[in-house]
Structure formats: C-alpha cells, structure tokens
Amino acid sequence: MFFEVKDLNKKYHHQEIIHRLSFAIDKGEILIVLGPSGCGKSTLLSCINGFEKVNGGQILLEQQDITTLPPEERNVSTVFQTYSLFPNMTVRQNLAYGLKFQKLGKSQRDQLVNKMISLLQLESIADMSVTEISGGQQQRVALGRSLIIRPKLLLLDEPFSNLDANLRLRLRRELRRVQQQLKMTMIFVTHDQQEAFALGDKILLINDGRLQQLATGTEIYDEPANQFVLKFVGTVNWLGQSRYLRPENITLTPDPHGEGIITQAVFQGPTIDYQVNLHRHTYQVTCLNRGHRFNVNERVTISYHEKELGKEL
Amino acid sequence: MVSPPFVTSLAYINLFGRRGLITYDLLHLAFNPYGPQGIILMQTVSFSSLNALLLISITQRINPGLINSARSLGATPTRILLDVIIPAIKPGIMVVALVSFIRSLADFQTPTIIGGSYQVLASAGYYAMISMGNLHLAALINITLAIPAIIGFFIYIHYNRSLTMLQHGLVDNQRELILPKRGLLWYSSTLVSVIFYLVLVLQYGSIFLNAITEQRWGHYYFSLGPIEQTAFFISPEIIGRTIGYSIIAGFLGSLISFLIVYYHQVHHSQLMKLLEMVGTLPYILPGTFFGLGYLYAFSTKPLILTGTATIVIINLIFKQVAFATKAANAVVTQVPTTYFKSIYDLGGSTIAEWRDVFFPLTKRGFALTFLNGFISTMTTIGSIIFLVHPGQELLTLVMFDVVQQNEYQVASVIACFIILICLIVAGIVIALINLTERNRSHVF
Which PANTHER family did the record assign (chain A) (predicted)? Predict the structure, then answer.
C-alpha cells in the first residue's frame, strides 16, 4: 500500500483522542476522513503531517517510516482550513515558496509556477497580493502552493468550510479535476457528508478516535457497518432489532382511508421532507419534488423497503 | 520598566566607573567610562525592555498557521524566521526603532550622568535652564529637538497602521507560535537573550548591592549605612508626595483617556478624535519641552500656577493621556457596540451606559492603564524637572540630584525604594483584578 497508518494512538493530557487507528490507501486515491466534531479528524491529520507527536503506532509512506520525522522532512504537504497564505507575498511568490527548498534553478521554478497558475486559472491575479483576492481565489492559491512541490501525500483540512455553497461545489469539481490530472494521493478531512460522497474514492468514518468503517461512499450508505455509521450518514428511521428504513425508500400514496397522516411538510427544493404518523410511529420520508405535494393532515398509504444492519430483507 | 530611566547609568558607573566593581575592583583598570559610547550603550539597554515587550506582543499576533504552512512546504526554522516572521513584524521593528529614537532624543539624564564633556541637545537644554537660567535658550533647544521627533512620529504613524494588517484572512484557534528550537538563528538569539538577562541581573544586582554594602579596605561589607545616609536626603513627606502624585496622575490620566476614547469610539465624536491625536503629543515630544511650555503658559495671569503642586499634577496627568488613550482604544474596541445599543434599546441613558457596560467591561484595561500611569509617574523626571520648586521634591528628582553629587549609594537606595513601591502597587492592582475576575468566574 502507498500510505499506511498502523495502530495509531494519540493522547492529550491522558485523554485518548485516537485509539489504535489503522488504515491504508493506494497511490492516486482520495481518502475522505469523515466524522462528527471532536472525533479526532484534525488530530489525525496533525499526526500524519508531523505537527503532533504520536503516542504509539506507525505512519508509513511508500514503506518509509515517517512517524518521528519533522514536518519539513516528510514529503507531506497540508492545505490548512485557514489557508495561511503569506501576506507579505504575491500569489506568484506564495506559489513559488516551497520550490525554494527543492534545489531547482530559477527558470525551472518559474516554469512550474506558470504551469500551476495555468492549471488553477490564476492568470488574472498572479501578481496581486494575497490580501487583495477573494476567499475562493485564496483557496485555489493555497491548493496550488501545496501541489506545486509535488508532495507524495497531500492533506486537506476542511479547506472549503469557509466558502459559500456554490463556491464549494465549483472548487470541489476543480479539486477532482486537478487531482486526476496530477494523480495526487490525498487525504481530505470534512464533516460534510455530501462533500465526502462527491469527492472520496474511500471514506474513513471515525468516532471518538476509533475507526467505524473504511469503505466507498456507496458501501457506507447502503451497507453501514454499525448503528453509529447508519445514524451518522444520512437520515434513518430506526425500527428496532437492527431494522431500518431510509427516508427515500418510503413511498407515499394519497389515500383518504389510509392509516398514515402527514404531520409536517418541509420544502427543500429538489426534494420535500415529510413526517408521517402511522400506528403511533413517526416516519421521516423524502420525496422528489415532481409536482405533487402532500398537505399536513392529509391521509396516505405508505409502502417501504426495509433493511437490516448487515443484510437486506 | 519599574525603575527610573537613568538607573542604567547609575549601574554603569557602579560597575564600570573609575572605581567600578568590574573595572577597578575586579580588573584593576583605570577606565574612563564617560562619553558617547556609554550614552549609546546605556540607552540601548534601558530601552530594550519596552522594545522587547512591544515586539513580543506584535509577534504573538502572527497567525501560527503561517509557520505551519511554511514547515509543510519544507522550510527550516531559520528560513521561516527570515521569510515569514521578520517580514511580518518589520512594521513593528520600525515602530520600536522610531520610539527609541524619539525617547533617545528627549533623554537628558543619561548624557548628563555619564556623558562627561560630551553634550547632546537634550542635556544642553537642561543646563541652559538649570545652570544658566536662560529660559529662551532652553526653549530654542527644545524646539530644535521637537522637529526630528515630530518627523519621526509621522513615520511611526505610517508603520503603526501597517501593524493592523498583520493578520490577514482567517485565524487559527491555536495561540502558540510553534517554531522548532533549532538552527543557527535559534542558537544566536538564545545567546543574545542570555547575555541580555545577565546584563539586567548585573544592573539591578549592582544597584541593590550598592544600597546595602560599604567598602572598607578593598572589601565589601553588609551595612545599613547607605540607608541611614539616605534619610538626610528624603523624608516620609517626599515619599508620600511622590506616591500621592502618582496615584492621582495614574487615576485621572486613565479616566480622562477612557472618556475620550468612549466618546470617540462609541459616539463617534470628531472632537474627541482630535483630542486623542493631540493627546499623543506628550508621548513624542521631549518632557522638558512640555515642562517649559507649562512654565510659559502658567506663569502669567489669569492662570498663575508656577510654584504650585497643581502645575506638576496637571503635567503628570496629561503626560499619561498619550499612552492611556492607546491602551483604552485597544480595550474599548473589543467591546461589541451592540452592548451599548442594548442599553438604550432597553430604556437606559448615558449614565447607565457607563455604569453598567462601559466601565464594568473595561475594568481590567482601566486598572492596567492606571498601573502604567502610576509607574510612569513614579519614574518620571523630564517633564517635571523645571516645574518642581524647592520643598516639593519627588523621589526621582532627589535621586537625580544625588547622582550629580556623586552620592551613588544614596541614589541606589532611592532607586530600590522606587522599584519596591512600584512592585508593591503592581502586586496589589493585579491581585485585585484577579480577585474580581475570580468572583465572577461562575457568571456566564
């Protein structure tokens, strides 16, 4: 495997933040680290990039043990949540910064910088101070600054969390394009599930510093390994005894004699979320917005496709 | 910072004077310490503490993410220092350089004590007034001093503005500036820091030793003789007057500054904004300049205040306004303006605004500004040297006089008194602040 973490342990003041975490990724993959706030995602990243010392375990990059190496010697680069662009430098100078430590000639450096500017479409702002550009532009510069030094592994710590929804979508697509073009191996931390499904080749879902599931987005959503995964990813109607229903797997049919009653209807744009009372149980239902809408207190018949944790009914 | 500005000169003479501890007693050298080299050295050491404090607070405002980014890109600690930290604090370096330049221009005490026959404008102005009684010559010299000070001040304003640009973009929650402790620059700066600490230990150690020892037949013996001798020069009245003036100047100076800032920041008063700018003048112009100004302004009708305590106290109060308004600004801008709006929204008035929001939320800043004003007044000399009449002496003036009479041990005792008083008051104020904050720590 290209990158491996084996039995990683990390404590703060005797409190365990990461507990015997192990996973591996192939070269050219994007691994998404997903989990609730405070689960240890950013701490994991800090252990991998060397800004935190680990209390146990190993970190291997191309079979080389980098567990105790300082950050500047790991060949791992990080795009931080707050970008941290150097305010005393222009966009071009920020991009070129890391190349100073790679023993390249000036013309070679300039060539690489120009290529990166072109790749990320930064031509119009290349010679501007980073204090004068927008949030989205800063994000692209921060990304370019890390990519240009061709690290073996690129870490991204919630890089889009400070951007509006449309910009996030645009930059997500751009990141995917650039990653595929450069065949860069990436570990991307996020708490946004949509982002995780859209970007990741694999998703590492953690909670309280422990691995919950490592799988593709489809597998995590359709075949959750345990109750935490089931309830964290998407919405779920829990029926008890390991049986559950996803809201989109419930079909509502208008029926004046139906036993189900609509108690809430929330318009979400492409979908509509309903709450339906049936036999003293409340179901969350998601329907596509195809024209027909149910009203509150309307009677319906519901049909569904139940699932069980670990198998399909 | 809690000692009179010429304490370094006193220590210099104790250690390196013609009969200094190091030059004469240890090395048996016949060394003449007086001259420009002594002035430059002592002013450098004297100003270093405040400069270091200012630069530390500026460096702490650097986004720690910048350091991590640079390391993530392969930069060594030395390169981070050269490429990221120093460019980021360059405006701060210019600011402290200009402040030191302006203070050095105004300093007449150090050249008077250890300049020997080497004169600077500030000491020439002092002698013109004190030795020759030539008010007009003194005024002319002080105006000449004021010109480079004002030019320096405008340059200072320019660089001070750049300091606010220091944090760009988003800021990490992490507060510590983590730089690995290795590399040539790390070891060099550690060495310089150690030497500086040793210099400070020597400086204050020599003052303290000089205050409690006597030399007999080439040996030093513990003695209360210097303290007993000091009783001829100072009295409880002088000590009480000094402390009293310091409390008044510290309190009123802070109060006036906070009120100016309140009306400027909260009510956007342009007049107060102008007053804030004008209030900075005592900070940049030599203290003797203001002393002479007060003499001229208050020696004729309708306000004849020369020879009174009032003129001294007024001078001391307004000297504090310069620094106190800056500190008040830093504190008040942290109070969200919606708090003040809420008072009026709920039917309150200006009094309620002061009583229930403004002063409670700026209490800590006010206390620290008071403390700074107190210490500054306890250790001041330049602005009051021409205003204080016989019978109204303050501790620093007595100390300056006895140094000029070569009574170095008495001067050391007085220096210790001043430092002790400042430390005691600082301890009381900080303890009160901590007590107040602890009592309210359960309130969310």
Answer: SPERMIDINE/PUTRESCINE IMPORT ATP-BINDING PROTEIN POTA, SPERMIDINE_PUTRESCINE IMPORT ATP-BINDING PROTEIN POTA
Expressed in percent and rounded to 5, the helix, strand and coil fractions of chain A are: 30, 35, 35
B88 close contact with A: CB closer than 8 A: yes
A68 touches chain B (CB under 8 A): no
CA–CA dist B220, B212 (Å, integer) = 10
B73 closest CB neighbour out of A87, A88, A145? A145
Interacting residues of A112 by C-beta distance below 8 A, sequence separation 6+:
A99, A104, A148
How far is the C-alpha of A101 from the C-alpha of A115, rounded, in Å?
A: 19
For A114, other C-beta atoms within 10 Å of its C-beta total 14
A205 vs A158, A211, A227, A282, B265, CA distance in Å? 15, 6, 12, 28, 49
Report all structural domains of chain B as residue ranges with CATH numbers, in order of start. Answer: 1-223 (1.10.3720), 226-444 (1.10.3720.10)
CB A24 within 8 A of CB A13: no
Q: What does DSSP say about strands A76-79 and A153-157: parallel, antiparallel, or unpaired?
A: parallel
Q: What is the enclosing helix (H) or strand (E) of A117?
A: helix A106-119
**B180 interaction partners in chain A (CB closer than 8 Å):** 70
CB contact under 8 A, A101 and B75: yes
Contact criterion met (CB < 8 Å) for A80 and B172: yes
Domains of chain A: 3-227 (3.40.50.300), 236-308 (2.40.50.140)
Cα–Cα distance measured from residue B136 to residue B121, given in angstroms and rounded to the nearest whole number: 14
A145/A112 Cα distance (integer angstroms): 11
Q: Which of B3, B4, B98, B42 is nearest to B382 (CA)?
A: B4
User: A86 and B171: CB-CB below 8 Å?
Assistant: no
Which residues in chain B have their CB less than 8 angstroms from residue A101's CB?
A: 73-76, 79
Question: Given this model, what pLDDT does residue B191 score?
Answer: 92
Q: Are B112 and B126 in contact (CB under 8 A)?
A: yes
Please report how many Cα atoms fall inside a 13 Å half-sphere around the Cα of residue B65, on the Cβ side.
21
- Backbone region of residue A183 per phi and psi (left: phi > 0; alpha: psi in -120 to 50; beta: other values): left
Contacts of A98 in chain B (CB under 8 A): 73-75
On whether any CB of chain A is under 8 Å from the CB of B175, the answer is no
Cβ distance of B72 and A78 shorter than 8 Å: yes
B65 in contact with A at a CB cutoff of 8 Å?
A: yes
Which whole-number Å values give the CA distances from A150 to A91, A183, A202, B327, in the listed order? 18, 10, 22, 47
- A121 is written with which tokens? 């479409």
pLDDT reading at B246 higher than 70? yes
Select from A207, A134, A131, A192 the least CA-distant residue to A161. Answer: A192
Predicted pLDDT of residue A295: 92
Cα distance from A21 to chain B (closest Cα, Å)? 23
CB contact under 8 A, B79 and A100: yes
The pTM assigned to this predicted structure is 0.70
CA-based nearest distance B57→chain A, Å: 19
Q: Which two tokens stand for residue A8?
A: 């990683």
Contact residues for A262 (Cβ-Cβ < 8 A; gap 6+): A274, A275, A276, A294, A295, A296, A297, A298, A300
A132-165 confidence digits (pLDDT tens): 999 889 988 998 998 898 899 999 988 888 788 8
| Spatial distance between the Cα atoms of B437 and B432, rounded to a whole number of angstroms | 9
Least confident segment among A124-128, B170-174, B429-433? B170-174
